[in-house]
Amino acid sequence: MRNKISFTLLFCCLIHIAVLQTQPIKQFISLPDMQGASFSLLAKDINTGEILYSYDPSRELTPASVMKLVTTATALEILGENFRFTTTIEYDGKIENGILDGNLYIKGSGDPTLGSAHFSADRTNYTPDQNTFIPHWINEIKKAGIMKIKGSVVADESIFDTEGVGMKWLNEDMGNYYGAGSYGISVFDNIYKLYISTGNAGSKPKIIETMPEIPSLRFHNYLVAGSVKSDSSFIFGAPYADDRYLYGRVPSGRDRFIMRGDIPDPALFLAQYLTGRLEKEGIGVEGKPTCHRLLYEDNKWAVRERTILATTSSPSLKEIIRITNERSHNLYADALLKTLGLQYKPNPNEVISSFGKGIRIVEEYWRSLGVDTSSLWMYDGSGLAITDKVSVSFICDLLVFMRNKSGHSKAFIASLPKAGIEGSVINFLRGSPLHGKALLKSGGMSRVRTYSGYISKGNKQYAVAIFVNNYSGENRTMIRNIEKLLLSLF
Length: 490
Description:
The chain is an alpha/beta fold. Helices cover 29% and strands 24% of the residues. It contains twelve helices and 20 strands. The protein has helices at 2-20, 23-29, 67-79, 133-143, 266-280, 292-297, 317-326, 330-341, 354-368, 392-404, 409-414, 475-489; strands at residues 38-45, 51-55, 86-91, 94-96, 99-101, 104-107, 148-149, 153-156, 191-198, 206-211, 218-226, 234-236, 243-251, 254-262, 284-285, 290-291, 307-313, 439-445, 448-457, 460-469. The strands form five sheets. It has a five-stranded antiparallel β-sheet, sandwiched between helices. A five-stranded mixed β-sheet has the order 16-8-6-3-17. α3 packs across α8 and α7 (317-326) packs across α8 (330-341). The longest helix has 19 residues, at 2-20. The chain is globular.
């Protein structure tokens, strides 16, 4: 019996070594840029579970945006592809003779798509004033006979806590458009455009305006115009803070160059925005626009009976995760994680964040299916946290489950962009034999490059995950090297 077991172990080891010694993999890990790097690869037959290629599959590495696969898959499984967020307009008090003796409330449910450019007819040229939900709200307010509000427009974002951004995010992400926080109320992707004019190389660009207008923002301009084609600029600032710092180099000789930053307090901004639109429609508002966070901090938050005037529903979850994975939308992913967290029931005296609740739900769900989650270390839903870790083994197990056992398999697979054609992998593998045939979610940050999804070889389909961390050299060089590796293997 002992000899049989020994032979079996030896046979398995020989197979594993053979897989490890695949020539393209040996060449890849021998590249100069891979000195000191961490690398994991796994390709598994989605039908038989047979491993085609494997290299250090249990290593816990930073996945970057590949973490969105975990978030979106779990959201589909628990919430269902037809789930929709709702945002409601409500009021308390009484309406008499056209006067609302009370407050008007914007009640949020965490919808990250409210006024999002990604669901407009023209995403590139979309402006906030093209939205349809504000006119709908105002129309319903008028139908109720309200022509004056003695109270305030109050944004109620209390469904989530005030930790809009992940506590493990890097400083360089704070204030930039891709690092927009997720809140109980989000609007316009929580992004503003900053228009600047740039003069000669070496000069200081001038700030023109923001769209939408956010009068409270204070910009500290340390930008420099340069003879460059692309910019290396960024906007730095903390959530809820009005000070924004502009650093880096931007192309010279531009009349209206666009930078993008995050709206520091989307709930308060929307209350201000709606107040302004109401007043333009002749509906006066006596009180100053405010939100749950500010009222709670001042011990002025009170729960009163409210009446619903209007309801705005989001696109379906199926549509939302399509944007999340194709466009690698950080806000959408983090909002989905926090929404999952609404199902978590804290223990007595337990203090846990909205992010933390969502993470618990994710971990509990996959454990309940018998999936080993020991390598899954989530700190957000988007993958922006540098402390996020996961193994390619876990990712492939998730991919196999979503392909074979999930009732939402089609929706999940459809959310993955086609390499060389769309989304974050529009230039990856373009013009190659895998062009349009590999469905891959990409991830990237400083010295991190990852890809995961489905690739076919012959008449078989494989769940594939490839992670590279801490490589040297340029990102574009590593991307080309990963392309060569995948083309050699598949």
